[in-house]
Amino acid sequence: MTPSLWRRHVLPFTILLGLLALATIAGDYLLHRLNLVWIGRYLGIPGTLLIVGSLVYSLRKRKYITSGNPKTLLTLHEAGTWLGSLMVLLHAGIHFNAILPWFATIAMGVNVISGMVGKLLLARSREHVLGQREYYQLRGLSKVEVERAVFWDAVTLDAMTKWRKVHIPIFIVFSVLAIGHIISIFLFWGWV
Ligand code: HEM
After folding, report:
1. Which of ligand 1's atoms lies nearest the C-alpha of 95?
2. Whose CA is nearest to atom 15 of ligand 1?
3. 111 near 174, Cβ under 8 Å?
4. How far apart are CA 10 and CA 117, in angstroms?
5. Does the predicted model carry a pTM greater than 0.70?
6. From the CA of 110, how far away is ligand 1's center (Å)?
7. CB atoms < 10 A from the CB of 64, how many?
8. pLDDT tens across 88-109, in order?
9. Is the Cα torsion angle 178, 179, 182, 188 positive or negative in sign?
10. Where are the domains of the chain?
11. Which whole-number Å values give the CA distances from 177 to 27, 74, 90, 101, 160, in the listed order?
């Protein structure tokens, strides 16, 4: 990978993902330190509502609804799913009693990462690789030499494209697992 692909595209992605991890660890630590773990327990509800609310963008994109600026809705989708995931991660905390919600959490994590790959890496990285190819061609390198020069960037790009494709299928897995967890909790609480 060339340094600029790393610095200009992969680094912002790493920072945003790192922030999510850091905020989760710091938040969970504080909740435990201040004896407020019960708050974390309830964060599952607003977190889920935020994630569900941010799906308005998907409805708009697929034209199930026709009002709302798609660009604004996309920004809300990105911010809402990031913040909602943080709440759900704080909600999950470091408690290990049941396996189903942990699978839901893993699926959610993969979902967030694949979304961020699409948002922060894919389009600009594609441009980057195209630009690099053009640059080497203009410098008179042969086709084989050009391909060799951009090899690692092209491999990285290919991996990102695959990650992006996972976004919708993993969302379905996440939803099924999360709904299973929520229904079982509601049954336990006698809400259904
Ligand atoms: C309406 C939304 C939700 C409610 C009311 C809810 C409720 C709860 C409750 C009461 C617990 C504690 C269970 C226990 O102490 O044994 C719990 C644990 C947990 N929840 Fe949720 N939850 C919600 C959404 C979610 C979502 C969307 C995820 C993941 C994507 C999730 C992941 C977890 C995890 C990982 C745990 C810890 C399980 C364990 O103790 O092993 N929750 N949830």
Report:
1. 40
2. 97
3. yes
4. 9
5. yes
6. 18
7. 9
8. 999 999 888 899 999 999 999 9
9. negative
10. 3-189
11. 24, 25, 18, 7, 25
